[in-house]
Amino acid sequence: xxxxxxxxxxxxxxxxxxxxxxxxxxxxxxxxxxxxxxxxxxxxxxxxxxxxxxxxxxxxxxxxxxxxxxxxxxxxxxxxxxxxxxxxxxxxxxxxxxxxxxxxxxxxxxxxxxxxxxxxxx
Amino acid sequence: xxxxxxxxxxxxxxxxxxxxxxxxxxxxxxxxxxxxxxxxxxxxxxxxxxxxxxxxxxxxxxxxxxxxxxxxxxxxxxxxxxxxxxxxxxxxxxxxxxxxxxxxxxxxxxxxxxxxxxxxxx
Amino acid sequence: xxxxxxxxxxxxxxxxxxxxxxxxxxxxxxxxxxxxxxxxxxxxxxxxxxxxxxxxxxxxxxxxxxxxxxxxxxxxxxxxxxxxxxxxxxxxxxxxxxxxxxxxxxxxxxxxxxxxxxxxxx
Amino acid sequence: xxxxxxxxxxxxxxxxxxxxxxxxxxxxxxxxxxxxxxxxxxxxxxxxxxxxxxxxxxxxxxxxxxxxxxxxxxxxxxxxxxxxxxxxxxxxxxxxxxxxxxxxxxxxxxxxxxxxxxxxxx
DNA sequence: GTGGTCTAGACCACT
DNA sequence: GTGGTCTAGACCACC
Lengths: 122, 122, 122, 122
Prior knowledge:
Four copies of one chain form a homotetramer. By secondary structure, chain A is mostly helical. The first copy, chain A, has helices at 11-24, 37-44, 48-61, 78-102, 107-115; strands spanning 33-34, 64-67, 71-74. In chain A, strand 2 and strand 3 form a beta hairpin. Chain A is elongated, with a radius of gyration of 18 Å. Chain C binds chain D through residues 6-8, 21, 24-27, 85-86, 88-94, 96-97, 99-100, 102-105, 110-111, 113-115, 120-122, and chain D through 6-8, 21, 24-27, 85-86, 88-94, 96-97, 99-100, 102-105, 110-111, 113-115, 120-122. The structure holds a DNA duplex.
């Protein structure tokens, strides 16, 4: 895995977001074992404590659970996953509308663009 | 004006993007005079050369023009403004869809979210 | 390389014109590596930033491209080179006719001189 | 008269070239009285001595003559005028061919361009 | 070692 | 006071 952090956001938050995305996009499945902290810290190229801090928060969120001495696993609580997924999606959509409003495109116009009533290329 | 730069992107590019948004959102109107380079550098808290570099690129883009010894002005060429606006919108929409795909939401699902066939809060 | 700049034209523009000539006259070939910025600045006897500015504009023109951390190279796009070459030739011919008109020789007379219907020495 | 000097060439030489052009292009006619030195120095915005030096050289060339106390006049010797005109034309044509050779266009190709066997726009 | 960015500060031309 | 150019020198990311 190659990974680039940006400098503005604390690294542990970036790791949280990254693992969140892996879980809600089903690249990490419920009850799947998560890579050990030490290994993950090597992958990310950061201090194990930083990874530990990120995993702690993910566990607080309920996205992972710890089987003591056996490692950490993705939750099998689909409700939690879907809740986080919805929150993530809502945030992304909200940010998107906000960005569009920043350049003078209101919500209805944005929806028009998306629905193709207005043309665009990408 | 208070302004926070992030560390990942060159300052002059952030200035370009900021001024671009002001122009395409009509917060700066065609033929409107732009703040002098030195003054703008104080506002942004950066070196005048950095502002100069950003404004030079905006002039290359055709978004501003210079009246020598008098100052710089927003272009009165609506076509240019609209072209840049469209490009900006397309990029934002493209980035948005890409981010959604990153968490496993394909384009059609994204459109469903936007159109409200799926619920969300923001 | 010894080089004399004149005082009327900005140095970076003179560097641009010089490199342009080297490229369109095939003294610098497509994909040929260009001297590093720092070294070139020593050759020209100017500040590296000045060279940087010139090379940036040549890149904007499409005459050179950058391989990040490796150096800068002449474009391999023959169309660009020929386009710039044509523009340069047209400008030189236009300037020449204009100069001749300044001393009362119109275009047809100039062509007569060139074709040798009128004699001259050089 | 508005006049811009460049910084590379001595001003008196630029004045010489300017007056030469006026004479050989027949904007100043044989036996026509030339503007007094003091007046001309005001027109050019330079020191009268500088104008004086230029006129002295033009007189050495035979392009003007002095009627003591009455002023200076353009020569009525058409041979001199034509000789200088030819020299000027030859120099301009030579310079032009040289510039073209600088970008890899030899004399025959240049003539082709001029005669229109090759296309150009201006 | 490579290009790229940025600062601090100077000087110039123009008006 | 305006934009534009230039220098000297620093730091960064990339490999």
